[in-house]
Amino acid sequence: MSLWVDKHRPRVLDDLHYHAGLSARLRALAASGDFPHMLFYGPSGAGKKTRIACTLRELFGKGVEKLKIDQRVFLTPSKRKLDVNIVQSNFHIEITPSEAGNYDRVVIQELLKEIAQTQQVDLSAKQRFKVVIINEADSLTRDAQAALRRTMEKYMSNMRIILCANSTSRLIAPIKSRCLLVRVAAPDETKTIEVLRYVGKKEGFDVPDKIAHEIAEDSNGNLRKAILVLEALKMQSTDLDKPLTIAKPDWETYCHKVADMIVQEQSPQRVMDVRAKLYELLSHCIPPTVVLKTIADRVVDQVDESLKADIMHWAAIYETRMRVGNKKIFHLEAWVVKVMSLYKHFFYDIDMSGFDD
Amino acid sequence: MSFFQPQTRSAPQKQAADPQHQPWVEKYRPKTIDDVSAQEHTVAVLRKTLTSSNLPHMLFYGPPGTGKTSTILALSRQLFGPDNFRSRVLELNASDERGIAIVRDKIKNFARQTPRAQAVSSDGKTYPCPPYKIIILDEADSMTQDAQAALRRIMETYARITRFCLVCNYVTRIIDPLASRCSKFRFKPLDSMSTSTRLAEIASKENVPVTDAVISALIDTSHGDLRRSITYLQSASRLSMSTDPPTDIIPSDIEEIAGVVQSSVINNLATTLGVELVSSDAMDVDSSNGVKAKGFDAIRKTVKGIIRQGYSASQIISQLHDLIIEHPTLSGRQKAKCALAFAEADKALCDGADEELWILEVALRVHKALST
Ligand SMILES: Nc1ncnc2c1ncn2[C@@H]1O[C@H](COP(=O)(O)OP(=O)(O)OP(=O)(O)O)[C@@H](O)[C@H]1O
Ligand SMILES: Nc1ncnc2c1ncn2[C@@H]1O[C@H](COP(=O)(O)OP(=O)(O)O)[C@@H](O)[C@H]1O
Ligand SMILES: [Mg+2]
Ligand SMILES: [Mg+2]
């Protein structure tokens, strides 16, 4: 049995719950026959992929839902073999470039050329083009982005690209210039509650007000999270009447512990302890940026107002260095030390000017 | 209107050329160099080469959507005509493998071939068809330094029979020895006049009524990138036609499509940071009289709200920048401090840094600059 997030995922534009204006725009574009390349962006769980799937359905009809998964082998320039899973229907193909790592350029180019050179064989197809969906487009390497540029222009007659990303700042300007940008905002609390109620009704129960509010607030606009939590709670107690606490994921609790450790004591020994914990988090594949932001958010809640801005300033600086640099842990650690020294400085009013920068 | 087009079944091979369904950017790509808007200097120089049978190596550079690729393709087509194009022009772009091996192999092989004799043109026109070939290296800024270095010799050795045209956004990414072998042509962001003329032309050919206000919204949102303004125009026209009854395009449609952040969002952020709003926009914000900057928590909350809305950080920062830099009462010193923060954020975002952290950073620094 599938999870509620999938089971109750809207399939057509008309069933989408919020941003009705946006749905209408997508419908108009799909009907016009000269559909542009598009870039959907917005926070995680806001409904980008759902909206893309609905748009495809509008473009091609029910046929796009018949998916098959292919495993394909690509050859890198250095003759290494790469296995990549590819989801496709008769009308579209979907790739997640992070699966190809540093060789995303090779994979994308081969696929695109292949698609561009094959004509739509299905004569009943509503459109003459095929659609290529690129998920997590903001993690495309620069190389792969550069390679997309001319391809997007050259093969426009039988191919359209839909990019899906969390943010646009990691995409190069020429790519943005070639796409119609579509922002998908996260639903606000009322809208989230509406969706929760709807899912509840479909499953044959009413979601109590209080629960709905709590889930919506906790989800922070991430609808996927909200629906998953609702399902989990319902499994715990069928009546949803007992006071419930929404369990935080382990890594979050762990990050909070690290934050508390930083605030409680500032010493070389503490740095070592924190370091061990950071390693633990990274080795569980929690993205370093998420680790840093979660810890920082918790730290600033516990310190004096005059320190908060500085702590966030250094979080921004060290996060950037982490992106450019290679060893994530170095920069996480450096930030921890920086925060400890700021904190000590503040408490004992030591002259720390030698530590600036 | 697009469904069930009978001709798509009877003549599948013609599908690609059906202009009715082509995006306007491709449909209105300049066919000759005289179609190219703005870029007068470049066009004037290139026009001479059409008659003189002499062409230097060239380097085109400039921001996206200013006509670089269109110009070189149009020029090549005018020089050689459709029948000789294949044998005389080699176009390679970033999607092609262009490592050093390819440079040594494919490019060199093409460069050394003696140009084939002119084929009789089937369309009855005569083309200058000068005695050389052209190699177009589009998006050359994504070529590695090594590959570029390998080009140097080839460019010199076969200069008599082969001309190179390098096309790129950032001229600094082309190694000096290559750049110095080429005549450089800078493609400027399109000025308002040229953009507006071109857009008006397209609109009238497509029978789309546009007002001056719409054109000026297109100019403001596309920053001299013609491709972008054409895409916006086409999308806006699709949307306005789809309503029942069809409505006219209005400037706010364009802003919506272009992802401009509503001024109420920016104003709300600004007041949280202690910026006093003086324009008429201040009406949108409840606390328009006697702004008082709020503390860290309020700022963080506002920033988190913005992130939830999915706005792009660079768009937020650039609009906040405009508001602050053009602010009538802030001191020069305050503006300077803010400007530093904006600049650092821009760099960090280009390096792929986290958007939330940097909007917050900018916000906190503006807040600090204004409260001292
Ligand atoms: N100067 C111009 N005159 C007329 N049309 C233009 C001009 N510049 C851009 N366009 C329009 O924009 C489209 C894209 O232009 P073009 O491919 O030449 O851009 P480019 O400069 O090569 O951009 P990039 O750096 O992103 O490759 C063209 O198809 C055309 O419709
Ligand atoms: N407009 C919507 N109306 C109702 N439910 C939605 C809507 N958008 C998304 N959802 C639900 O939220 C889940 C996550 O959406 P998804 O499209 O995967 O988000 P994103 O791609 O932005 O991360 C979907 O599985 C679906 O159940
Ligand atoms: Mg997703
Ligand atoms: Mg180009």
TrEMBL record, chain A:
Species of origin: Rhodofomes roseus
SMART domains with a match to the protein in the record: AAA
InterPro entries assigned: AAA+_ATPase, DNA_pol3_clamp-load_cplx_C, DNA_Rep/Repair_Clamp_Loader, P-loop_NTPase, RFC_lid
Boundaries of every AAA+ ATPase domain copy: 34-187
Molecular function, one GO term: hydrolase activity
Keyword field: ATP-binding, DNA replication, Hydrolase, Nucleotide-binding
Name recorded for this polypeptide: P-loop containing nucleoside triphosphate hydrolase protein
Pfam families on file: DNA_pol3_delta2 (PF13177), RCF1-5-like_lid (PF21960), RFC_C (PF22534)
TrEMBL record, chain B:
Annotated stretches, region: Disordered: 1-24
Bias kind Polar residues: ranges: 1-13
Pfam families in UniProt: AAA, RCF1-5-like_lid, Rep_fac_C
Keyword field contains Metal-binding: no
Record's signal peptide: none
Domain AAA+ ATPase: 54-191
Keywords of this entry: ATP-binding, DNA replication, Nucleotide-binding
Coiled coil: none
Gene3D superfamilies xref list: 1.10.8.60, 1.20.272.10, P-loop containing nucleotide triphosphate hydrolases
Record-stated family: Belongs to the activator 1 small subunits family.
Protein name, UniProt field: Replication factor C
Organism encoding this protein: Rhodofomes roseus
